[in-house]
Write a structure and sequence with these properties.
Number of helices: 7
Distance between the termini: 44 Å
Strand order of the largest sheet: 1-2
Number of strands: 4
Number of domains: 1
Radius of gyration: 19 Å
Structural class: alpha+beta
Largest sheet: 2 strands, antiparallel
Length: 195
């Protein structure tokens, strides 16, 4: 997990991000994510947590551990969105390096969540059951996943479930101080205005 922190730290030193438009790379300044973007990723993470809870009784213990980590990440992301909303001007006044660091942490988390969401879409089976009011949809892991989950690749770096759990923990650990700093600044803002 330490190498992931080092990789994240080196990414945060970058001042720009590459964007591809019509096949051409262009450099764009990074900025603090919008509250809505953070909330959206929080909701995706929450949905992923629910996916790992699908078939709770029959799910492997490792799935419960990942569910706990991704649900914790969803909670931290929601707190980040609330803190950004309450102290949005604070980060916009911060230096470019600070803003780029925040953006890099969020973008790394967003990439992990979106990649995991794609994997879940690929490996979960959806079953419809007729009910009195229409249909009920039940999601469950495919038989392939339930039999091969220990040898499956769960991260874009080729990691297993243990690596995935570590990545989710790393994102939560990296975002928590941002939330705390935003909350401190939001509490201090009224004091600064009164002086």
């Amino acid at each position: 997990m330490q190498s992931a922190f080092i990789r994240l730290a080196s990414l945060s030193r970058q001042k720009t991000s590459s964007t591809y438009v019509n096949g051409t790379a262009s450099l764009v300044a990074m900025s603090v994510p919008a509250t809505g973007d953070v909330l959206m990723i929080s909701q995706v993470a929450w949905r992923i947590g629910r996916a790992f809870a699908a078939g709770h009784k029959d799910a492997p213990v490792e799935f419960h551990e990942v569910e706990t980590e991704v649900s914790g990440l969803a909670k931290v992301l929601k707190e980040l969105a609330e803190a950004l909303h309450n102290g949005s001007s604070t980060w916009q006044e911060a230096g470019e390096g600070v803003q780029n660091g925040i953006c890099t942490i969020f973008e790394s988390c967003k990439r992990t969540v979106n990649d995991l969401d794609s994997l879940i879409d690929q490996y979960q089976a959806i079953k419809k059951h007729r009910t009195i009011g229409g249909f009920a949809i039940e999601r469950s892991w495919s038989d392939l996943v339930l039999t091969q989950y220990k040898t499956m690749i769960w991260t874009t770096d080729g990691g297993d479930l243990h690596n995935l759990k570590g990545m989710l923990q790393m994102h939560s650990i990296a975002i928590t101080p941002l939330v705390q700093a935003l909350q401190r600044q939001a509490r201090r803002a009224p004091e600064l205005c009164n002086n």
